Amino acid sequence: MKIIVGLGMKSAASVDPQVQAFISWGQGNKNYDLVDMLMIGNEVLQAKHDTAANLIAKIKSVRSQVVAAGYTGPIGTADTVQSYLQNPGLCASGVLDVVGLNAHPYFDANPSKSAADDGAIVQSYVNRVSAACANKNIFVTETGFPNHGNTNGGMVPSYANQKIAIESVLSVMGPNVCLFTTFEDLWKQPGQYNVEQSWGMFDLTTPSNDVW
């Protein structure tokens, strides 16, 4: 089993201590061999934590450091469809070996779509970003469905629909996705649609709610 390592980026400077921690960890016991890809920043542009120019510069800086320290795997960032479409310079810059895509159809608010359409919608996201990024390698770094919260368009949060959505995604996308998320994120605020805590696929108290 391999892992995706993510370095959070609330600002350019916030990445630096994490880079050193990654290098120290990676150089021990051949830990770099465990890493499938290194992602620098998660939804930096979507959340407006920083600019595309600063993100590009930071990825270049991190790349030079980790490559010099022996890391040879792919490097990228994770963001949303709109972030890539609105910032074409990110893909054009050449700093991304892999384009991480956070793909959550629930937020589209399309009244004609339901959980069963999630797989096709995620594939459409990938197609749009692939076209915008000159067919670079796209990896879905997040996709899932809430089990509680507000109805948004035709998307109705429930345990049953969570299972339907995830099965739809896997049937279309196969293993080229990272499912979001293992357990409920009770540390988060509920958010605009009251769903932010409720994407967990496994329920420790009620196993019958588990996706599998």
Question: Explain this structure to me?
Answer:
This protein is α/β, with parallel strands linked by helices and 212 residues long. The chain folds into two domains: 1-77, no CATH class; 103-212, no CATH class. It is 33% helix and 15% strand. It is built from six helices and six strands, in the order E-H-E-H-E-H-H-E-H-E-H-E. The chain has helices spanning 16-26, 52-68, 81-86, 88-92, 118-132, 159-173, and strands at 3-7, 35-42, 75-79, 98-102, 138-143, 177-179. It has a six-stranded parallel sheet with strand order 1-2-3-4-5-6. Helix 5 (118-132) packs across helix 6. The radius of gyration is 18 Å and the shape is globular.
